[in-house]
Structures are given as C-alpha cells and as structure tokens.
Design brief:
Elements lengths: L2 H16 L12 E6 L2 E7 L13 H19 L6 E9 L8 E11 L3 E10 L4 E10 L12 H7 L1
Antiparallel strand pairs: 1-2, 2-4, 3-6, 4-5, 5-6
Helix pairs in contact: 1-3
Length: about 160
C-alpha cells in the first residue's frame, strides 16, 4: 500500500473510531496531522475536557493518547497487525495548561513476530518535550485492522 494511500486510510479510520460512542470519542478533538509507515503525528489544543483538577492536561488522557498513537504507528509500520499492551511506561516532565497546543509524535521502533516496540514524545508549542511514553505490544495473534475495517472502501471515500 502506498504511503499516501495509507495516510488517507488511517485518517478515515481515525475519524470513524473517534466518532463512536465508546471510549475512543475522547479523541474527537485530536487532529491527526501526518501518517507514514511506522510514524504518526497529532495535535491538540488542551481544553477543559482534557484537563485534570489543576487545569492541566490530564495524565490519563495523555497515556490513552500515547496508547492510541503508538498502536497507529504499529498498524502503519507493519501489515496492519493489531495488538494488545504488555508493557507501558510514561514520564511526565512538564504540564500543559488549558488553551495550550500540544503535539505528539509516535514511532514504531521495531516489530518482530510477536512483539512491537514503540515510543511517543509529547511537545508543547515551543517544541519542548513535556512527556514521553514507551509501549510494548503483543502482535502475534495475526489479527489485522483489515479484518475489522474495509480499507478499500475507505480509500475510495478519501
């Protein structure tokens, strides 16, 4: 699948997933900026719904977005394999306040037969890293995104 086709497809998949009624809807205001094999970038303006009681970006929201984006890096960097988390690590260095823009870059570091290793960096508008996450996922079940989403029809829509 060509990189531009892959980007169009995964932007459509993102839209479908975030418009549902399940947990994924918390990402509706996250803008998927770029998708390439094994890499993706998103941006978000922190709003009240993303914040904790101190008015800063909620750690749980950040961790969930790292999970989502690193999974997307696996989908685009492999043959579309889905996985489940086996290890997740997160470090928070600086807060982002309501109204501030943040960006996240996620990358597939390595995918083997059964495990995939990923990382994600969260940046503020000045380009400072404010959080970092690493995730290892089990991808050996042979389940693929294509088993759940008709990618060909999505490509026609984009």
């Amino acid at each position: 699948m060509a990189a531009s086709s892959s980007a169009a497809i995964f932007k459509q998949v993102w839209k479908i997933l975030t418009q549902g009624k399940n947990f994924d809807r918390i990402f509706q205001k996250v803008n998927l900026v770029s998708v390439s094999p094994g890499r993706c970038r998103c941006e978000l303006t922190v709003e009240e719904e993303h914040a904790n009681g101190q008015g800063t970006l909620h750690g749980g929201f950040t961790m969930s977005l790292v999970d989502y984006m690193t999974t997307l890096s696996i989908l685009t960097g492999t043959d579309g394999r889905l996985g489940v988390s086996v290890q997740f690590n997160m470090s928070f260095m600086q807060a982002a306040k309501i109204g501030e823009k943040v960006a996240m870059e996620a990358e597939l570091i390595k995918a083997g037969k059964s495990l995939a290793f990923t990382k994600a960096d969260v940046f503020n508008a000045k380009g400072d890293i404010i959080a970092q996450g690493q995730q290892t996922m089990f991808i050996g079940s042979n389940k693929k995104v294509q088993d759940f989403v008709d990618l060909k029809s999505l490509l026609k829509e984009s």
